[in-house]
């Protein structure tokens, strides 16, 4: 009985949510809008009644405290919505308060219901990789519908432009066919902000954790399913890792927003409310490596072109977001151990037990590869751009800040602080490489990942040395990791080549081949940098880039694993090996 009431409760909340969306879409028909608001009020009252029954049944059934907490939270929110409805009926000046409260409550109810039911996904018996891809696809479709609503845009946009923008936001790419700052209203920009947040961290991360929290627990099947999303080794750490990811991400984004806000002036943005939204939007966009900006020319806009402090703040955010959560948490663990060691040795004057391999092998490999990429690209750009884009910066500090930002942003961040048309050909070649490599695994960034490049280079080194095994740092890299690395590289080149070929056919008479190749690499690696051709693409070209962005965000290998039936080999025999001629 309780489950049926819960399902009916969620069903009504979804109907109410649909009415809200329909009401937003009928702003030009005030009469229908009033009638929909009346139906919406009846649904709120019905939800309040069902919520009261649900709270009573949960109490009688002695359900978990978290489930009862969720029930009381929903019932209390509905009480506030009902009170706002009463005030609106008595005094018309409370109409906006009613709309705000009731719409917020409906969104809360629909979100909590979806989170609870996310724990039932294992019953579908879907491949985790396919479920991962489907979650992004559903988010893209929902975002497309919201961006097509009249309140989301200043003058309306086409379905193809809405779909492209939603895909770019969910895949945290940053390519834009319309000006984010002028084509979208504050509501539309907020939708893009939420799409970036859910797309960057993964929609399954949010719904799985809140479903677990309010459900009061989870079974083994759920933990096995979610384990693939958070990439943790220990099954018992699944939901603890989800909690860490959410809290850490929101904390870093909040700190970044504060730092950005402190560097803005009213002359740059305007009132404090606009500065606050600008700060939050760019902090989330930077940490998620999305590259979206409400500035028409990104950071190359007049007034922000030489804001080096802002550039470095954003650079710090997308570097942290691109390192990967496993790397960050491993360093946090190492930091705690180091502080504890110093405390015990220096203050407590006692011996501390030795703990080997505190910094994991993958962490060291990622940091070394990332450091070499940053150092190498920075030095390269100092030479290649000295007489080009760097000539506009008179001071040494400005040149170093600009070149560092320019070296970091191609690795999936996508913010533009220089004139892309003024880059030298040598720099463009470096950009191709940096975009292709991308960020680190388990991060908000895209690309083939730094570990893939590292494994490929270590494999080449082992061949040159005549070694049978790939060894580094006192460890041997497994054959499975090597196979996955080369599969990722091969599939990425295949998708980029196919996407560029299709674009060349569709856009042959409009754009140069090098521009289309740059656009495709940027889309697959979810970078967002462009040579200025995105907005002038045909509808077919936009849809092709959408497919490339989606494939790049999910990963071509992950997508194929989800679509192709797995056939693990467990034979008791082994075929004889054969050497084939290569090169």
What does this structure look like?
The protein has 583 residues and is mainly α. It has 3 domains: 118 residues; 172 residues, no CATH class; 239 residues, no CATH class. It contains 22 helices and 2 strands. A two-stranded antiparallel sheet has the order 1-2. Helix 18 crosses helix 19. The protein starts with a helix and ends in a 20-residue tail after the last helix.
In short:
67% of the residues lie in helices and 1% in strands. By secondary structure, the protein is mainly alpha-helical. The termini are far apart.
SS element count, helices: 22
Characterize the biggest β-sheet: 2 strands, antiparallel
Order of helices and strands: HHHHHHHHHHHHHHHHHHEEHHHH
Low-confidence residue ranges: none
Which geometry do the CA atoms define? globular
> Numbering strands along the chain, what is their spatial order in the largest sheet?
1-2
Q: What is the number of independent domains?
A: 3
How many beta-strand segments?
2
Let me know the average pLDDT.
81
Helix proportion range? 55-70%
C-alpha end-to-end distance: 69 Å
Work out the radius of gyration: 26 Å
Provide the structure class. mainly alpha
User: Percent of residues in beta strands?
Assistant: under 5%
